[in-house]
Every structure is written in C-alpha cells, then in structure tokens.
Specification:
There is one protein chain. The protein is an alpha/beta fold. A seven-stranded parallel β-sheet has the order 3-2-1-4-5-6-7. Strands 10-9-8-11-12-13 form a six-stranded parallel β-sheet, sandwiched between helices. β12, α14 and β13 form a beta-alpha-beta unit. α1 crosses α17 and α9 packs across α15. The protein is globular. The N and C termini lie close together (about 10 Å).
C-alpha cells in the first residue's frame, strides 16, 4: 500500500509536531507500506539530515513541493493561510498523478482542499469548528484524546467517524540511556543536588509561569532546571527567574540521556484552556514515562487519560504551591517514587508509535 503523508511544516525542525510526524511515517513504513512524506519548500529550513535530526530510520521518502512562503518566520495568520493553502493546492494537483491508497494529514485546512484525506486533529480551534460540515467528508478523523473526541461529537461529527489514538514513544530510544552522573557532567549540572527537570516549550499553556513560581519554594539542595526555549527567551528568563537554571534548547536525539539527569521530571501544564486541559497528548509525557524517573504532573483530564496516582504524582494545575509540594513529596519518599516510576514504564509499553500506527491502519481497514 502507498501512504502519502502531507504536512505544511518545515522538515526538519525541532518542534514536537515535526518529530511526531517523522516518527509516525517511520511507524507506518515499518508496517510494510510505502510511505512518502510530502512537505513544502520553506524558508529558514534547517540544513541537517531530517532522518538523523528526528532519530528515525530512512525507510520512507521525503518530497518537497512549492508554496507561497512570503517573509519566512513571521507569525502573520494571513501569511500562514496563504502558505498552507498554496501548498495544499499544489499537492492536490501533484496527487492526481500519484497512485496512493491512503492520504494522511494533520492540516485542518485540508478538509476544504483534500476531502478524501485521513485527518489527524490535535486541537479544535474556532476555524476548525467552522469546517465541521466539511470534516464529515473526510474518510476518518483521528484525535489524540477522548476530550477532543467528545467535543467533536458535540459539534456534529458522528462518533463512529472518530478514532482516539494518543501520541506515543519509541522505546528503543530509551533502551540504553546515559548514566545520571554522565548526563549531569555533560550538561554541567551538580552531581550532589536533587534536580527537578522540565523539558520542552516555554509557552504559557505549558504551565511555564507556574513552574517558575514553584522554584523559590523548593528546599535547599533541590534545583529546578529547564531544557528548552529559544535563545531570546532564555536571555530574558535568566534575568527574571534566578531560582531556575535554564539550560537552553538541546537536540531531540539527546532527550533520553538528558532525562537521566533528573530526580523528578515535571509536567506543569495549565488548566486554563481546552488545548491543555482536554486536547493535548504531550510527547514529553510518554518520554517521561519511558525514562523510569518519577513524574510530577498537573491533574488535568487530558493527562488523566494516561496518568493516575499509580504512575505519577498529580497536583492541582496553575498552583505553584501544589507543584512545589508535589516535587517535595516525590523526593521525600524514594521508595514510593520508584514504584510509581516503574508503573509508568510498564504502562508506556502500550503507547509506542508502532502500536499507534497499527491501530490507525486497522481502523482504516488497510492492514
């Protein structure tokens, strides 16, 4: 079977959604199918080998098509729409000459241009809600949480038209990680302090403000460290939050080793919006679970679909006091923390990219 995966993202790039796309293409290909990832020529694209950058095997192909990418890097909504629609229109004509059995995409705009696509949704924005009548023309909609599925049904999508498939992890990446001592030495971290570590974007909905506010409440000998953010963000944050150690962005391929530097891994998502509280299925959640290190996470419906008191320490979202206490609790009781970390490692066995690809293909009746 030939599967074409369409994305308007830069390939390669270090955004989590780009890693997810690359991992899913690899997983589809490992199921024995011919997979072609089709992306636009974009300005400011990184020059690294995309397969090496994302840590995937080169068992699928990547094709670039033209688009109207005016002023690359700007955040203009108009220019984003222009770039995406122009790419999808070029892709539609390109597809006329390409034999394929499955067309897969994460682009909600594809509902208007490519009505026969399999659409994977990660959010339900007002623009996506306006396309609900057109979304029913798609062969299938994949959502990453039950919360997103429920809101789609309430908006008018038939339940049988939707498959829930949370994100996942490649467990092979975590089979032989660096030791804690070596990881800390490489990152320039103390080998004597306890370290609570956050890895990822520093956006507000990720709970960054709560994370920073919790740092001064941690006891002496406990350090809050952050991996992620842009150089510009880090310069400002280092001045504003002197209790937090900002390590800056690190390559995705270092993630399994970097996690080993932690005594606790922190997932402080905010509960103030549906994207975080109902729709998100963070890649870091599954990589944290694969690490064998205790997790302190916000108690949100989206995270509750995967986590519980058996495999993590769950705390009230948007509450620095609760987050700090969760970290203190995890560090105070090493035996209980180790038990929950072992349970998380066992539970994540059910959430591999390969299992996800197999489930999606089975739902599409193409396995």
């Amino acid at each position: 079977m030939k599967l074409v995966y369409l994305t308007s993202a830069r390939i390669p790039d270090d955004w989590a959604h780009v890693i997810q796309i690359m991992k899913m293409c690899e997983a589809f290909a490992r199921e024995g199918h011919t997979v072609e990832l089709v992306a636009p020529y974009r300005g400011r694209t990184r020059m690294e080998d995309p397969f090496i950058f994302a840590g995937v095997d080169p068992i699928f192909t990547i094709r670039k098509l033209p688009c109207l990418d005016i002023f690359p890097g700007t955040e203009s909504r108009f220019l984003y729409r222009l770039r995406t629609y122009s790419f999808l229109l070029v892709a539609r004509f390109w597809l006329l000459g390409v034999r394929h059995e499955v067309l897969y995409t994460r682009e909600p705009m594809a509902a208007a241009v490519l009505p026969k696509a399999i659409l994977e949704l990660h959010d339900l924005t007002p623009a996506t809600r306006s396309r609900i009548p057109k979304l029913t023309r798609n062969k299938k909609i994949i959502t990453i949480t039950k919360g997103l599925q429920a809101d789609l049904v309430q908006a008018g999508i038939p339940p049988g038209h939707i498959l829930v498939a949370p994100d996942g992890v490649d467990l092979d990446d975590f089979s032989d990680p660096e030791s804690k001592v070596d990881a800390r030495k490489r990152l320039g971290l103390s080998t004597s302090e306890k370290i609570a570590l956050y890895i990822g974007l520093l956006d507000a909905w990720k709970g960054s403000a709560t994370l920073y506010a919790a740092a001064p409440q941690l006891p002496s000998g406990v350090l809050l460290a952050v991996i992620g953010g842009s150089a510009e963000e880090i310069d400002t944050l280092r001045k504003e939050h002197t209790d937090v150690l900002f390590l800056g962005p690190k390559p995705y391929t270092q993630l399994p080793d970097n996690q080993q530097a932690a005594d606790v891994l922190v997932l402080p998502n905010s509960g103030k919006g549906a994207l975080s509280s109902l729709y998100t299925s963070p890649l870091k959640l599954f990589t944290y679970m694969a690490s064998g290190i205790p997790i302190v996470a916000s108690d949100l419906p989206s995270l509750r679909e995967i986590l519980s008191e058996k495999n993590a320490f769950l705390v009230t979202p948007d509450d620095p006091n609760a987050l700090a206490e969760g970290i203190r609790t995890a560090l105070r009781d090493p035996e209980e923390s180790a038990r929950r970390a072992r349970q998380a490692r066992a539970d994540v066995e059910h959430y591999t990219w390969q299992a996800r690809a197999d489930r999606i293909l089975e739902a599409l009746c193409v396995n």
